[in-house]
Predict the 3D structure of the following.
Amino acid sequence: MKFSSLPALLLSSSFALSSEPQKPLKLSSISTSSPSFDADAPPYRDDLVYLHKSLVEIPSITGSENDVGNFLVDYLSARDFIVQLEFIPPAEDASEPDKPRFNVLAWPGPSRRPSPKVLVSSHIDTVPPFIPYSTSNTAPLNSSTIIAGRGSVDAKASVAAQITALESLLSSNAVDREDVMLLYVVGEEQSGDGMRYFSSTRGKLDPPPDFLAAIFGEPTEGKLACGHKGFFACDITAHGRAGHSGYPWLGRSATEVLMRALVKVLDTDLGSSDLFGNTTVNVGVLEGGVALNVIPERATARVAGRVAIGPELEGGGIVAERLKDVLRSVDEDAFEVECRNGYGVVKCNCDVEGFEPITVNYGTDVPNLKGNHTRYLYGPGSILVAHGPDEALKLGDLEKAVEDYRKLILHAIKSE
């Protein structure tokens, strides 16, 4: 398998694999960094803890994923995975232009032309700021140990658990080596450019993979998501007429008309469903006016909506049009509105024995991978702490995720 943009499967450089097998990074520390003396510890605990710790210790805020990507390349290649890099076209405002961004695509060797049935994927970027790795107790760790740090939940917990699960299945010969492909993408926390690029270019792979199922890793509290809300974003500009604040009837306050309109938007049902609840709108940025004694001539707001209706392709646009109707009902002529990134609810398969279903309100890369495949969304940890200063999860939840990913992979292979 190869990308048309790369003449060889792997290029020898600081960000690609050489033709010689690479040594894993600090592999000697796997058996000594946090030895397990817990009689109930799974056999893979030390490897899992090492991998998760290594990922979290490497800062990988969106746009700066090169170092963590290189670690994954070394880690997977040392375990006889064929690893391929998919380089993302650099942005003009790239934070680290000298460090190319790339997705990590991998599958168990030795075949270099696999035909995988199932894709297992998550993302390796995180939100800012970086928070160092820490644990609630020193070795020996146990299932109640709390592991903290940026990405410890979202989504490096999923990455570590997925890789560990697949290795476990391979070691027990529970799956064929060509059944599963791993994909770890950049950019999910912002535009989803990593998954979008993979989706748009996978037809250039040799052979192009035609996945029957895809398992996406995101924090779902260890439950299987039936789907998630859609999304839209709008920039709203209100126009008024400036004047002296002592004579408000001689002007027209853009700030006032915008505030009245936004309150009405928040009070309006823009779309609801039994499964996903109500569409919600967040007024993230609100600005207006030039001085406290001047009637504001211009005011702006940036809003984001979590869409509770479908269909997937049109749902976001439907809700955005409803928002515009609300604005016009307040003032027919005052507003300019520009909306983008709209999509409706994203449904996934949650009918798997042994899993509790859930729906979530955040966005994922699920809709960014196009194709007619069954979609599963699962991961350890809670989204409620994922982007905050207390991002953390229990080691027991991370280990449970390994077992659950094993079940999901086997279910996906057998069901398709």
In short: The two ends are 23 Å apart (CA to CA). Residues 1-36 have pLDDT under 50 and may be disordered. Residues 395-415 form the longest helix (21 residues). The helical segments are 45-57, 66-77, 156-171, 193-201, 254-267, 315-330, 383-386, 395-415.
